[in-house]
Write a structure and sequence with these properties.
It contains 1 helix and 4 strands; from the N terminus they run ββαββ. It is mainly β. The chain has one domain. A hairpin with a 5-residue loop joins β1 and β2. It is flat and about 45 Å long. The model has no long low-confidence stretch (mean pLDDT 91).
Length: 77
Amino acid sequence: MWGYDRLTPMGGLWEDRDEHQILIREVVEVRMVPKYTPFDRWHIECWLPPESYGTPEDWKKLTHETVKGQLIEQLGP
């Protein structure tokens, strides 16, 4: 998979800046971002069955965090 081509949901506190790098706002949300770094090369993926990540309850415990009082999914559903 080419690094820029695989996007994944990632939640957290994001800073939006203008062209002069001046902070415009901070927002807590889930954004689609490149999954792999560095972005400009190939990456090998390996499929894993959903069971390898545990139960849905386990997934929620491991991947949810509170940011500025908001519960956010760090890695999507």
